[in-house]
Amino acid sequence: MKTKKNNERISAALFMLPSFIGMIIFSLLPILISIFISLTDWNGLEKLSPATISKDFIGLRNYTDILSGTEFWNVLAHTLYFIVLYIPLVFIASLIIAEILFQARKGVGVLRVIYYIPVLTSWVAASLIWKWVLSPQYGAVNQILAAVGINGPNWLTDEIWAMPAIVLASVWKDMGFYGLFLLSGLNGIDNTYYEAARVDGANKAKIFFSITMPLLSPSLFFCLIMSLINAFQLFPQVMIMTEGGPNGATQVMVERIYTYGFKYFKMGYASAYSWLLFVIIFALTLLQLKGQKVWVHYES
Amino acid sequence: MKRDVMRKTLAMGLTIAVTMGLAACGSSTSSTAGTADSISATEKPAAAATSQADTAATSAAAAAASTVSAAPVTISYCNFNASGGNEETLNKMYEAFHKENPDITVNIETIGYDDYFTQMQTRVAGGTAPDCYELNIENFAAYSSKGVLAPITGVDTGNFNQTALQAFQVDGTQYGLPGDFSNVVLIYNKDLFDKAGVDYPTSDWTWDDALAAAKKIRALGDDYWGIYAPTTYNEFFKEAAQYGGSLLNEDKTEFTINSDNNLKAAEMMIGKVTDSHVQPSDTDLAGMGDSDLFESGRLGMDITGIWMFSTFKDACDFNWDCAVEPGGTQKATHFFSNALVINASADADKQAAAAKWINWLASSDESAKMRIAASWNLPAISNTDVLADYLKQTPPDNRQAVFDSLNYLVTPPIIEDYSQMSDIINEKLSEAASGKITPKDALDQAQQECQEKITLK
């Protein structure tokens, strides 16, 4: 009996080995090396070796430069602007999707596919389509707005509207993903709670806020952590739709990291930026894990 | 039971496939490289096959000639320029080169522009860079200051346009050869000029003439615009030169972005958008490109690249032509080129062979003729005879303006942090063009930001 279990363990390990090796070589190792790079002014062209790292060593100067400049704080403000718009919108949209899928009697399969297609679409394709949809003169969005008498903004070339435009595209793309998570959360709620509530004469709103929401909170919590991490790592849509413009209004962390590393050849600076991003995400996730006690209810 | 086994095998196969896929993804972006070979693996078989056939032919030729002195050498060459339709032309060029130089075999690798620079950066840092390769101006600026390029020596560069050649000199050392060129001219709508009763532009025009004509065309109606020239860094360093200004002092030790002459240029550049409004702003354009506006027949003059010729030829149903672009106190014209460079860590014999190959590719009459016959691009050479076929194509009738413009060419101010400088200036100019700040503020702020963020030598 025991040997069988051991055998299973060994074969499981063997199955995981290929992805494990890949992860160590292509993720873990570069991540560790980037700590050292962040302490240098390595330009990304010289051959990288312990010798280059000690030759280019500049201590914590990259970090102090980033934190003492105004750019980093602007970039952080842009990210917060994104989060403030994106998180409520994506949660409302995915809750609605989850409810529709949960309530639907017919064609659930088709609906699931429809809502999930944007998730599977590559960000490059999606961004290009949104760029087109948001084009001020010919784009669908402004045409629809014009039909109801609203003069639509120059979405992607307007400093104020560029970030909302990116939020719009992101919500569209992500709502199916979170919607499906929330749907499985809804499916996990025991029907007896609803029956009991109905017997007690609770109305729909009461049922939603007193039963659905609390029991859905573990799923909501997961989605919140995921969406916050993703919000901080916002990148492909920005790169394709605005390239950080207009006038830097959509510059965000990962966009800056890419620009410094691969456009300005300041790999050390870019690595330091990455580690600051890590610290921010790590701290926020810790905070959320601590904060969950207040509002997340686990059944049983 | 049997089905179960099948399923397990399938699952395992999938896992492996997915992992390999992930690994491949990781390798192309990982900065520790060493994977260049796998990247180029798809291109290699073809190249290897041709080179083998070539070597066979070479040894036969060598045996017959018996005057061969140098040992045969094989070099690698990477480029983006031939991608998207000119791979064949490049191969033909190589065949012609190889006939003249049977000792030199070149393995050509063509990579799409979008992936090119990330790949090159990885390969250079990983020590697996090709022996010679192509770089755009921004990357040339960075690479040449990092000691990864070898000086180009031992070849006769007399065939090049000498000013163009200087574009890739850093502190007097030739680190690159201009592989091709394109430039910018004034393209104008003849019909609109007739309608407004203005004389056609000539090569003597200054901005005063151009703006006066622009005003008259603008007066034709709300939908008509006089002129368009970008309000960007690229346009600015050229227009600064037209007013006798520059972004850096002579020995490139200090920024001079907010100098008086530069301010004159910036005021002219921005003023035609914000004050006289003969040029549409971004808001007026509402996502339209200046070329769309020109093609719609509502733009009098478009200061744009000669790469637009073929598009306008198909898209415009009115008469149009081109002229050397207007100047300020003096003429200055753009010159865009990609550099062909040599890897500093390649062996000496490979460097010598590489110099021969890129020099031939960029400046020999023979390759120039093939370039033009294939309508690929223009070689940066001084012998305009070989360019005759290019001049014969119309419209525009005045294609000669393309070459006349070369007399006034200015090259971009190469510094190590070129990309960063151009981004900073771009941002400030676009703020000024949207009317948020004055041209003077834009230059002052750009000057300050460049001084803060960029260390000059």
Distance between the termini of chain B: 73 Å
Biggest interchain interface, per-side counts: A-B, 33 and 39 residues
Low-confidence stretches of chain B: 9-69
How many domains comprise the coordinates of chain A? 1
Q: How much beta of chain A, percentage-wise?
A: under 5%
Number-wise, the strands of chain B total 12
Q: State the helix count of chain B.
A: 20
Query: Quick one: CATH class of chain A?
Result: Mainly Alpha
How many E strands of chain A? 0
Instruction: Please give the CATH class of the largest domain in chain B.
Output: Alpha Beta
CATH superfamily of chain A: MetI-like
What can be said about the biggest beta sheet of chain A? none
CATH architecture annotation name of chain A: Orthogonal Bundle
Content-based structural category of chain A: mainly alpha
Average pLDDT over all residues of chain B = 84
Structural class by SSE content of chain B: alpha/beta
Strand content of chain B: 5-15%
User: How far do the termini of chain A sit from each other?
Assistant: 33 Å
Helical percent range of chain B? 40-55%
What's the main sheet of chain B like?
6 strands, mixed
The radius of gyration of chain B is 25 Å
What would you note in describing this structure?
The complex is a heterodimer of chains A (300) and B (457). Chain A is mainly α and 300 residues long. Chain A has one domain: Orthogonal Bundle (MetI-like fold). Helices cover 75% and strands 0% of the residues of chain A. Chain A has 13 helices and no strands. Chain A has helices at 2-37, 50-55, 61-68, 71-103, 108-120, 123-133, 140-147, 162-187, 191-199, 204-232, 236-241, 253-263, 267-295. In chain A, helix 10 runs antiparallel to helix 13 (267-295). Chain A is globular, with a radius of gyration of 24 Å. Chain B is an alpha/beta fold. Chain B folds into two domains: 43-179 and 338-392, D-Maltodextrin-Binding Protein, domain 2, CATH 3.40.190; 184-335 and 397-453, D-Maltodextrin-Binding Protein, domain 2. Helix content of chain B is 49%, strand content 11%. Chain B contains 20 helices and twelve strands. In chain B, strands 1, 2, 3, 4, 7 and 12 form a six-stranded mixed sheet that branches. In chain B, strands 9-10-8-11 form a four-stranded mixed sheet. The longest helix of chain B is centred in the N-terminal third of the chain and has 28 residues, at 2-29. Chain B is globular, with a radius of gyration of 25 Å. Mean pLDDT of chain B is 84; it is low at 9-69. Chains A and B meet through helix 1 and helix 12 of A and helix 1, helix 5, helix 6 and helix 19 of B.
